[in-house]
Design brief:
The structure is a single chain. With about 325 residues, this protein is an alpha+beta fold. It has eight helices and eleven strands. It has a five-stranded mixed β-sheet with strand order 7-10-11-9-8. The chain has a four-stranded antiparallel β-sheet with strand order 3-4-5-6. A hairpin with a 2-residue loop joins β1 and β2. The relative contact order is 0.13.
């Protein structure tokens, strides 16, 4: 895909077309099943008993609108090729996961009321939540893997400023940032163990199908691999390149101190104004990489000095012509 493309066709298909088709399928299915359904179908449950009812047509249109507005609203950003790739991927997975839950639940609810004279006796199909979550997240992950980075890149016209750190180049320089293996096990355990205990106590195992994808997604937001080499800097997550800044566009890299909550409002991938992105997983040193297009990408790392020094040294070697353009960027913005 061209680097200057504004719209990602894959993102359009998975982030817009799929939710719209899912919404349309709800309406079509409701029309086909309407002759076999009660005059008013159950639409809401408290415990095991339905306590809300309505015409199937209005219920279908309401759910279809929710699918488009909530599910589609979450994952529509996947179509914007110039938005940060990591953000587009996560929003696509979340949006299609929500879409899957809503569609599967509604279809299962209607299916449970086929040829039923009295909707008040209908049991809620709890298994549909698990099926919808797994199916939606699976489709979302497939689409996320196929997305391509269309972020606009502007070649740097000057080498990094002389006062920025330099250092020996270990190529590739690899650092794993975020929570470690031990913390990962603890985090997953704190999520999964209570879920298993509750499921065992209630003799219902469908919640695990909902919790497991959510737990994996939560952990993946806190585990990344940062790589610096002759190509630039890239961040890998879930075995794919999630954030990539080419060496030719890097204006400079500096070391800074950052605090997740005070400076960024939380952990993980953060956005702070236009073009300012952070991958913050701990308090302490971070490398802030500035590009000619105006982006500033901050990554917390215990090896921030090495990462910044290697990037600036590599940028010095790229052989770019020195420009006297007064609009050229000479120092990174912090």
């Amino acid at each position: 895909m061209s680097q200057t493309r504004v719209i990602d066709p894959v993102g359009v298909v998975f982030g817009i077309v799929v939710p719209v088709l899912a919404a349309a399928s709800i309406i079509v299915l409701a029309r086909l099943w309407e002759p076999r359904l009660p005059a008013e179908v159950a639409t809401h449950w408290t415990g095991s008993r339905p306590d809300g009812f309505g015409p199937v047509g209005s219920s279908a249109w309401t759910m279809a609108l929710l699918v488009v507005m909530v599910g589609g609203g979450c994952c529509a950003i996947a179509a914007l090729a110039r938005s940060l790739l990591l953000m587009r991927r996560y929003m696509l997975v979340i949006g299609l996961g929500v879409t899957g839950v809503m569609v599967a639940t509604f279809v299962a609810v209607l299916g449970a009321q086929l040829d039923v004279a009295d909707a008040t006796q209908t049991a809620f199909p709890t298994w549909s939540i698990a099926v919808g979550t797994v199916a939606g997240v699976a489709v979302g992950w497939l689409g996320a893997a196929l997305l391509r980075d269309g972020r606009e890149r502007t070649p740097a016209s000057r080498p990094p400023a002389p006062d920025l750190p330099r250092g020996p180049v270990e190529s590739p320089l690899v650092d794993r940032v975020g929570i470690g293996a031990g913390a990962t096990v603890v985090l997953l355990g704190s999520i999964l163990v209570p879920t298993v205990l509750v499921c065992a106590a209630t003799d219902s195992w469908w919640p695990t199908a909902v919790v497991v994808p959510v737990a994996v997604l939560a952990v993946s937001l806190l585990r990344f691999t940062v790589i610096v080499d002759e190509k630039g800097i890239r961040v890998r997550n879930l075995a794919t390149d999630a954030v990539v800044y080419d060496l030719d566009e890097i204006v400079g890299a500096e070391v800074t101190e950052t605090r997740p909550f005070q400076d960024w409002g939380g952990w993980g991938l953060r956005v702070k104004g236009r073009g300012r992105y952070g991958l913050v997983t701990t308090t302490g040193p971070a490398v802030a990489v500035s590009t000619a297009s105006g982006h500033v990408f901050t990554v917390t790392s215990a090896r921030a000095d090495e990462l910044a020094g290697a990037l600036n040294t590599l940028a010095d070697r790229r052989g770019a012509a020195v420009s006297t353009d007064p609009t050229g960027l000479t120092e990174p913005s912090t």
